[in-house]
Design goal:
The structure is a single chain. By secondary structure, the protein is mainly alpha-helical. The chain is globular, with a radius of gyration of 16 Å.
């Protein structure tokens, strides 16, 4: 029973292209490399935390949580950067589920 991972891999490739073409140049123009890495890592952690705290759905509540927490740390991320981190998280979670052996799913 083969699982077709093509759509997932295409999504990851599309996300990587978007990050390369849009997010990274924007960040580079505004920050140092160390600040960029810190902002991206913090945004990812907060996106995962929001998902853990609020569960599925409630997108606007989770977005507000991430924006507020970034602001509390003296950071500001463009909404598209937060959405990219959400998309990345969703793609990775779907990929992990697709690769999970059938006997582990139950």
């Amino acid at each position: 029973n083969m699982i077709d991972l093509t759509p997932i891999l295409q999504g990851i490739a599309l996300l990587a292209s978007w990050i390369t073409l849009r997010l990274i140049p924007w960040l580079k123009s505004k920050t140092t490399r160390q600040q960029q890495e810190y902002l991206l890592a913090t945004t990812r952690v907060l996106v995962y935390a929001a998902e853990q705290l609020y569960g599925a759905g409630k997108g606007s509540v989770k977005l507000s949580y991430v924006e507020d927490e970034l602001e509390r740390r003296g950071l500001k991320a463009d909404v598209s950067a937060i959405e990219a981190a959400v998309r990345e998280m969703n793609l990775l979670q779907n990929w992990e589920l697709a690769l999970k052996p059938e006997d582990e799913e139950n």
